[in-house]
Design goal:
Number of strands: 8
Distance between the termini: 25 Å
Helix content: 10-25%
Order of helices and strands: EHEEEEEHHEE
Structural class: alpha/beta
CATH class: Alpha Beta
Shape: globular
Strand order of the largest sheet: 5-2-1-6
Radius of gyration: 14 Å
């Protein structure tokens, strides 16, 4: 399963590093974790430059999509979103009996 961690400039460092570390401890066939953003790298709130593995649109092909917190994420969530992010729309969320959730994303026409 593909998992995407979405970052924007001014993201909270610990949120990204914790998610990255924990998700990369999963040893399942086909499990893949990628950091995605609007550019090839983003700068954290404390000035750390983090390269991305791809663009945010790639999250549409992921089974798991997580957004890292921070001022950049809040700004993008409040209506100043880029076109690439606007094309992502949660269409279905389900929780199974183990308590794990899944959101399916589709692109807007």
């Amino acid at each position: 399963m593909k998992s995407s961690i979405i970052i924007f400039d001014q993201f909270t460092d610990i949120d990204l590093f914790l998610m990255w570390d924990l998700l990369n401890r999963v040893w399942l066939p086909g499990w893949e974790v990628r950091i995605l953003g609007e550019r090839s790298q983003h700068i954290s709130a404390t000035g750390i430059a983090v390269p991305t593995h791809g663009m945010i649109d790639e999250a549409n092909n992921s089974g798991v999509v997580l957004f890292v917190s921070g001022q950049g994420t809040r700004t993008n969530r409040m209506g100043h979103r880029k076109e690439s992010e606007r094309r992502m729309e949660a269409t279905h969320i389900e929780i199974d009996q183990t308590g794990w959730g899944r959101a399916e994303f589709c692109g807007r026409p």
